């Protein structure tokens, strides 16, 4: 286990404009600033909330500003306290929860693959698909840069926000970056997992059972489970829930109502969407949609 321990409480910044009220002591704002295309922002404090295993299309970079965050990865668990940074590459399956009774507060950047590739091409000698070679680091200066991106965006200062974002990502890549391995499936199990994922994506609203899916792919249920988890870090049903939430995000961003979105991605009803969406994204779908239509 790699641990970055906190050495004193830092202010968590408080629930700024547009934040979503949650359980006692918790707040969150997940939003997008027009001056920073290709970037989502989350600033939050969580105490009881925990994120189930999920993944992101793009990158995750968070600076812990108080408390302790505990992140579960395929190869173990890392912890970061005040001054710690967590870095996760695209499609990196992970969980997140409080690592201390007081919970944790953080400022998170979700830059798209295109944004990171552009910055890497301009500022580093890295070739191919770039990513982070480390998951956790203690780097107070970079942590402050990440929070300053949020502050500039919240103040509507596009010049400062864009400049600080590029500086922060460039420094992260220079200090902790490296080329990512190719994702081309090579083994028979990886190819089977990729075919299973394609089936689930195509039939998201009405997926087959594990047994029927295995039959379609010419394998056994347990072999499919092992192959899928090895390829994507989670079993098919967990991956499907995450994929549905990702699809729901795209529909909500396009203006769809939560009730319509729930049916379109295969959830039984809006309460099911609300529950899974809030657990994975950190804010309810209604709040997520409002922040993108403002």
UniProtKB/TrEMBL annotation:
Sections of the chain in a coiled coil: none
Skewed-composition ranges (Low complexity): 1-10
PROSITE patterns for the chain: HTH_ARAC_FAMILY_2 (PS01124)
InterPro entries associated with the record: AraC-bd, AraC_XylS_family_regulators, Homeodomain-like_sf, HTH-like, HTH_AraC
UniProt keyword Transcription, yes or no: yes
Pfam family, one: AraC_binding
Region (Disordered): 1-24
Presence of keyword Transcription: yes
Boundaries of every HTH araC/xylS-type domain copy: 194-291
Keywords: DNA-binding, Transcription, Transcription regulation
MF annotations from Gene Ontology: DNA-binding transcription factor activity; sequence-specific DNA binding
SUPFAM superfamilies in the record: Homeodomain-like, Regulatory protein AraC
Protein's name in the database: AraC family transcriptional regulator
């Amino acid at each position: 286990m790699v641990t970055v321990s906190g050495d004193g409480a830092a202010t968590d910044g408080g629930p700024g404009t547009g934040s979503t009220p949650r359980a006692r002591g918790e707040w969150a704002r997940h939003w997008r600033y027009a001056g920073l295309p290709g970037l989502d922002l989350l600033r939050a404090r969580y105490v009881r909330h925990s994120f189930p295993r999920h993944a992101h299309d793009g990158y995750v970079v968070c600076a812990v500003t108080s408390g302790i965050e505990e992140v579960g990865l395929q190869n173990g668990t890392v912890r970061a306290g005040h001054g710690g940074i967590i870095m996760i590459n695209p499609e990196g399956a992970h969980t997140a929860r409080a690592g201390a009774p007081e919970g944790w507060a953080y400022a998170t950047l979700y830059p798209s693959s295109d944004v990171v590739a552009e910055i890497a091409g301009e500022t580093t000698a890295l070739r191919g698909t770039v990513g982070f070679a480390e998951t956790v680091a203690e780097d107070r200066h970079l942590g402050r840069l990440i929070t300053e991106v949020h502050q500039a965006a919240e103040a509507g200062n596009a010049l400062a926000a864009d400049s600080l974002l590029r500086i922060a990502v460039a420094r992260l890549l220079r200090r902790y970056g490296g080329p990512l391995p190719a994702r081309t499936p090579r083994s028979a199990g990886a190819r089977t997992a990729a075919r299973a994922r394609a089936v689930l994506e195509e039939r998201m609203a009405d997926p087959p059972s594990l047994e029927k899916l295995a039959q379609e792919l010419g394998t056994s249920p347990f072999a499919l489970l092992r192959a899928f988890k090895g390829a994507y870090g989670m079993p098919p049903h967990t991956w499907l829930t995450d994929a549905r939430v990702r699809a729901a995000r795209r529909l909500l961003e396009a203006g769809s109502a939560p009730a319509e979105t729930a049916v379109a991605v295969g959830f039984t009803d809006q309460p099911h969407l609300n529950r899974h969406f809030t657990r994975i994204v950190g804010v309810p779908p209604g709040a997520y949609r409002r922040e993108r239509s403002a």
